[in-house]
Design brief:
five-stranded mixed sheet; 4 helices; 2 domains
């Protein structure tokens, strides 16, 4: 009956066709909520190098080894250029076996890429050096 009333009002004798298109709005809403939940629940990746930064102890200050990292990746150990990762690791192993604790001060150039500085710190960690301090980073803040 309703079909006939619509046909009389519109002056169209053809039966109305059903809408064949799917309503995409609810589907898009659900997908956006799922994407947001996925972004929130993904754990953050931490690429950390765990090094003890040492604590201040009363008494005579320990000997200091200064390591400079230049902008091109050149490593300078107490004024002498260290060539190669193996030589650097050997120096760190010698420090790790020392009977007297040695304070290691890492001074990166402010233009040095992080990968060079992280490589030196990772080499120290692998060699067994227990404490290292980063000097001069107040200029970067």
């Amino acid at each position: 009956m309703r079909h006939h009333l619509i046909a009389l009002i519109t002056g169209n004798n053809k039966a109305p066709e059903p809408m064949l298109e799917m309503n995409m709005t609810p589907l898009i809403d659900v997908m956006l909520v799922l994407i947001i939940m996925l972004i929130i629940t993904i754990p953050r990746q931490n690429h950390a190098i765990n090094l003890g930064l040492g604590a201040a102890k009363p008494g005579e200050p320990p000997p200091v080894v200064t390591i400079d990292v230049d902008f091109d990746g050149t490593v300078v150990w107490d004024g002498l250029i260290v060539t190669g990762k193996d030589a650097l690791a050997g120096k760190f192993r010698t420090l790790a076996r020392a009977t007297v604790p040695v304070q290691v001060q890492l001074r990166p150039n402010r233009l040095a890429p992080y990968k060079f500085v992280a490589g030196v710190m990772a080499s120290a960690q692998r060699s067994g050096v227990r404490g290292i301090g980063i000097i001069g980073n107040e200029k970067l803040m």
